[in-house]
Amino acid sequence: MPMFGLFIDPLYFIVMIPGFLLAGWASMKVKSTFAKYSRIRSSRGLTGAETARQILRSRGIHDVHVEEARGFLSDHYDPRSRTVRLSPQVYREPSVASMAVAAHEVGHALQHADGYAPLALRSAAIPLAQLGSYAPWIIMIGGFLLHMLELVYVGVALFAVTVVFQLITLPVEFNASSRAKDQLAQMGLVSNSDARGVSKVLSAAAMTYVAAAVTAVMTLLYYLFRLGLLNSRDD
What we know:
By secondary structure, the protein is mostly helical. It has one domain (about 10-225). Helix content is about 70%, strand content about 5%. The chain has helices at about 10-40, 50-60, 90, 95-115, 115-130, 135-145, 150-185, 190-225, and strands at about 65-70, 75-80, 85. The chain has a 3-stranded mixed beta sheet with strand order 1-3-2. A hairpin with a 4-residue loop joins strand 2 and strand 3. Helix 2 (about 50-60) packs parallel to helix 4. The two termini are about 25 Å apart.
């Protein structure tokens, strides 16, 4: 929200420029990298769905379903229903990009099966993070309108929850990618050239999470600074 005290604040844009640039670059990078490796057929000719199911079987996991989802790059793992959902392109096509994305999402299923603590922590924090995605702005605006600084503090505290969520997400995503690459290599599902492509796809995707975390942290720092909590001054 580029405002403080209900006016447009130039400092917000100055502080956020690095985050905006990083987010824009990350978005373009993941799309271009995915597009490039979507055109390269995997050496084993496996679709994303086949890759996911083979990894799950190799680990003896039989209670995780692999389903086709809707939307471009809508791939995700749902720990509540224990389901790996893959976008149509990833689910159906035998490309290096499809293999990389599918293996990454199965990496989350492996985390779940192994009781990976950061995944459990992130899953538990989802309700608070969802609340923190919209409630802070409402509360802060109410605080400004009512001239109640306490409400502004509450709004900032709620936003801090979303920042913590973004930070927790980083190790979860990096670990899932690491598991994906290990499984693909151990099972002999990738050639050397495939492995390089998989690594590039997953690295590009990881940057989107880094960009989101940087943007969230910079926004929180901006609010803390404007509230005088980061700069010492005598009133």
